Amino acid sequence: MTATYRPVEPIWCAGCGHFGVEAALAGALADLVIPKHETLVLAGIGCSGTIQNNLGAYGYHALHGRVLPTAAGAWEANPDLTVIAAGGDGDGYAIGMGHLIHTFRRNPSFTYIVMNNGIYGLTKGQNSPTRQGTATIDAILLGLSVLETTFIARGFTRAPDQLRRLTTAALTHAREGRGFAFLEVLSPCVTYNDTYPVWEAEQLDLDADDGYDPTDRSAAFTRVVDLQSQNRIPIGLIYRDPAAESRSFVNPAASSIEPASHVESYMDVMSRYRI
Ligand SMILES: Cc1ncc(C[n+]2csc(CCOP(=O)(O)OP(=O)(O)O)c2C)c(N)n1
Ligand code: SF4
Ligand SMILES: [Mg+2]
Question: Rounded to two decimals, what is the model's pTM?
Answer without folding.
Answer: 0.93
